[in-house]
Amino acid sequence: MSFKSSELVLNDKNQVYHLGLSANNISDKIILVGDQDRVGLVTSFFDSIEHRSRHREFVSQTGVYKGKRITVLSTGIGTDNIDIVVNELDILANINLETKELNPVRKSLEMVRIGTCGILQSAIPIHSFILSEMSLGLDNVAHFYAMDFTEKEGQLLNEIKNHCPFPAKVEPYLISANHELVNRFSSDKTNKGITLTASGFYGPQGRSIRLPLKNNWRESLENSSFQGIPIVNFEMESSALFALGRALGHACTTICLGIANRPTGEFSKDYEKPMNELIAYVLDRI
């Protein structure tokens, strides 16, 4: 099977169109960050760097940390960009860009997102490490693909929907992170649970500045848990990462630094030191 040029879109250097990368530019271990400047922050821990590139909001560096070859890539904000990033990383891993045909052996990547988030449990302090074992997607990305959800995901989703008055026409989906990665990053330093992934920062996360909201659905999920799994945080990328990653055969999870506590109203204005600690924590375990 050879893919059409209109579907498998490449640039004039025969690289994937948006990321501007070739297969040899990436490792099998990938750290995703939203902020372009965080790429250099992560790779400042590296022993060496072999590749640097920048195209649009997608900044990429690949190098070595304690003998491990790792790629760090910025995604920008939102699940729409995650749709681009995961698909194009999968193309690099599993399609020959010269022949535009699938490689005979499928490769699985490890993708770990490092980000910041809002905490949804009042007892979790600012600057805590928040590990996503599942994501409740309030975006639409996964709905465009033919993919399966587990029975447990379906049951848990129904419980949440019965409890929470989501705005009309919002159709959430629940998707698990890779269990092996979640176990690898779990420790007494992490708070683990369900991440809410929103399609925006203000209204879609229950923030009202000058525009009123339809209802207070977010408050119904604060300090809550379902089947013993707490709703721990809000961010904007994980649902699409987990859904597309799992459907394509890649291992994905997210670990964030909590910089706002929504129930208590607290916000961190200086999180440089704990972010460095989180980066070191991830690098030692990826």
Which characteristics define this entry?
Rossmann fold, alpha/beta, 286 residues
Give a short synopsis of this structure:
Helices cover about 25% and strands about 30% of the residues. It is built from 7 helices and 14 strands.
Question: What this model shows, in words?
Answer:
Helix content is 26%, strand content 30%. Strands 7-12-10-8-13 form a 5-stranded mixed β-barrel. The protein has a two-stranded antiparallel sheet with strand order 5-6. The chain has one domain: Rossmann fold (3-Layer(aba) Sandwich). Strand 3 (58-65) and strand 4 form a beta hairpin. It has helices spanning 36-43, 79-94, 151-163, 179-185, 217-221, 238-248, 272-285; strands spanning 29-33, 48-55, 58-65, 68-74, 95-96, 101-102, 110-119, 129-137, 173-176, 190-197, 225-226, 229-235, 251-261, 266-267. By secondary structure, the protein is α/β, with parallel strands linked by helices.
Give the strand order of the largest sheet, numbering strands 1, 2, ... along the chain. Answer: 7-12-10-8-13
Strand fraction equals: 25-35%
How many helices? The count is: 7
CATH class: Alpha Beta
- SSE ordering: EHEEEHEEEEHEHEHEEHEEH
Beta-strand segment tally: 14
Largest sheet: 5 strands, mixed, barrel
SSE class: alpha/beta
Number of domains: 1
Instruction: Indicate the mean pLDDT.
Output: 97
Task: Give me the CATH architecture, please.
Answer: 3-Layer(aba) Sandwich
